[in-house]
Design a protein that fits this description.
about 270 residues; alpha+beta; 8-stranded mixed beta sheet; 6 helices; about 25% helix
Length: about 270
Amino acid sequence: LGVCNAYTPQLRVRANRTPAIASRRDLFARTAGAFSLAIAGQSQALEENEVEVYFGCGCFWHVQHEFVEAERSMLGRSDDMKITARAGYAGGLSDSNPKVCYHNAFQVRDYGSLGHAEVVRLRIPPSKFQAFAEVYFNLFDERGDRPDQAGDRGPEYRNVIGIPGGGAGPLYAQLEQACLATGDRLDLSRGRSDGKDGDSRANVWVMDTSKSPFFVAEPYHQFHDGFKLGEDYPASYNDMSKKLLSAGLFEDSKCPAGMIGLGIGGL
């Protein structure tokens, strides 16, 4: 694996960029055999149970909607109670306190201060991970940007993917394949798990979910309309927040309700 510096070892470099060590395709060709042998035994065990993963790029509202639709279409989860996509935070500092909050006037466990990014968590069969990763990569244009999120900049909106084991885990080969299948638009780099990864364009930080766990966001952020003007979803989608919360399918973190206490649109 190529190393850019002591803290950000690069896992893959997109083919249309001058690579520091090797292109993604060259790297994949050299390591595919080794990966397949190492992963074979682990993949068999993973297939027996769903795996928790997360994806982040810009505001989590639109991303959550896209993955809810993916769960319905690819996994047949037509029952709202079977949907596992949850908006939340990951990639920053983790400690014994399970609470991570959106920006709030009291500065209680502010996710930005803790170094987290906005993400969406899923629980899916490992064999379907590549298909879900392709949904993620298709959110980007050929320059590695999300066209609908031009205003989202900074580490809170950085691109992150969380998988068991990170770049050394059993799902990483599927992640590379998904990246290639969708046009090889992004570099993949190993995340630091300390919240100090920058918001570099056309790059995704690959996190180890055991070291960089997911923290669920507040109920008012769940199943929210999109960030883009006019991106309104059906009321039946918005109502899923109260429905799943009442059923105990995610927990209320009891964080302060936004910047001025409204709990609407982050305010």
